Write the structure tokens for this entry.
Amino acid sequence: MAAPTSPAMRLWIGKANAGNSIILLQGDITHEKADAIVNAANSELLPGGGVCGAIHRAGGPGIAEECRRLREERGPVPPGGAVATGAGNLSAKYVIHAVGPMWAGGNSGEPEALTSCYRESIRIAAELKLKSIAFPAISTGIFGYPLRDAAEVAVDAVADALAATDGMVAKFVVFDQKAFDAFSNVLNMLAGSRQYTLDRWQI
Ligand code: AR6
């Protein structure tokens, strides 16, 4: 998979001069330049498969070592939670390990947990005074969250959290065309509302 293409669309949140926006890209998040890259992690913070495996491989063993220490200190991170580590060899300053819910039919608190891991990630990024954060489509791979539902929850949660910050850019870096279509549909729907303005780029 190639590095992300140029931005495909950008949704401004609230007033354009507040500088908060959501950008949608398709590509490999490990190549993304952002202050923080979010990992779709597991509660034990172990290097796993999917985007988690890719981030640990690209970032090097220091990330897993820091995860191990954090896990020892504070125990497992529940679904909906997030913690930050350094980013090793990645160009980001931090990796924020966000634990998404495992899909179990939708009535076991999955939307709340998914909302919470996006919000927590942005809260941590703001606390660290970061200005850009890149998210994968958390829970939509091995954890089985249906893509369209996950895209709605993700965009809603990020737009809400950004409205309460200043000058933060959140990027969704999604891996394949199906995910790109799901996220762009949700962003296009929001563009009808007065709170948001959507710019489109050619890809
Ligand atoms: N860049 C961007 N997105 C990616 C990349 C990449 N390099 N690789 C995969 N994706 P998943 P989950 C997409 O399975 O469902 C791990 O073992 C992928 O297409 O990585 O939250 C963890 O340790 C999908 O849309 O994460 C946990 O145990 C999205 O990333 C568990 O899997 C998320 O898929 C977490 O499962």
User: Anything to note?
Assistant: The first helix runs from residue 50 to 59. The first strand starts at residue 9 and ends at 13.
